[in-house]
Amino acid sequence: MNSTVNRLRQHGLEIGSLPEIEEILPIHFHDGTELAKRTLALHALLGVIFYQDPKDIVKWVEQERMESELTEREKRVFSLTELPEEEILWKQKAMQSNVITWRAESLYVLLWALGEIPTMLEPTERMDGSGVAECLPELGEAMQPFIQKAKLRPKQEILEELHFYFFLRHFIEEIHEQTGEWIDNIEPILVEERYYALFWIACADQIEWDIFKNEDRID
Question: How far apart are CA 163 and CA 211, in angstroms?
């Protein structure tokens, strides 16, 4: 895809021709409903970590019967609400400095893939939490309307982003191995999270959410 070559060059990576993403990865998309449910699970996960009363988030998820959408790692985050009251705030603060909070970038990608966010930011820019919140149900609101209206944006657009982030991830890791340096103004973990979400969306047969995210301890 020529757009990937041009975008990589904008970040100082002089690359020749590249294979198409379909030549590299087995493409099979999750549908809009699956994306919406995963989006809401991440929304709730970040709510438990950052909301002033995480028990309210847990109750909301239970009321909406969304517990089954949580991964085992996410359920462990939710379990902080079972701690004594004096420990919950401490545990929340510890979570807020954990790499699991970078799931916000995955949430951003899922919302973009659902068409809730019009354009993807460049990898030099972090997502805007306030802008993302406007796209999601508020605490206590029914989740089903969000799920029922969900549909994927054009698949070709998603594949173009997957192609770009696949190669950006590859080249920044290659440069780091060779020089010990990262590309200026690009957070490697941001690239990883966005690539991870795009891969999950477009390569549904290859991965379950959190299946290879073993680097982020939450205990």
Answer: 21
From CA 5, how far away is CA 26, in angstroms rounded? 21
| Structural domain for 45, as ranges | 2-202
How far is it, in rounded angstroms, from Cα 212 to Cα 170?
A: 17
The reply to whether 208 falls in a domain is no
How far is residue 36's CA from residue 114's CA, in Å, rounded to a whole number?
A: 8
What separation in angstroms does the CA of 104 have from each of 3, 43, 175, 193, 196? 26, 8, 26, 8, 12
- Kindly state whether residue 83 falls inside one of the protein's structural domains: yes
Q: Which amino acid is at 25?
A: L
User: How confident is the model over 89-124, as pLDDT tens digits?
Assistant: 999 999 999 999 999 999 999 999 999 999 999 999
Taking the C-alpha atoms of residue 140 and residue 131, their distance in angstroms, rounded to an integer, is 19
pLDDT digits (tens, 9 = 90+) for 58-75: 999 999 999 999 999 999
Q: For 203, which DSSP code?
A: B
14 falls within a domain: yes
Rounded to a whole number of angstroms, the CA Rg of the chain reads 18
Q: Please state whether the predicted TM-score (pTM) of the whole model is above 0.90.
A: yes
pLDDT one-digit tens code per residue, 134-177: 999 999 999 999 999 999 999 999 999 999 999 999 999 999 99
Residue 35 lies in a domain: yes
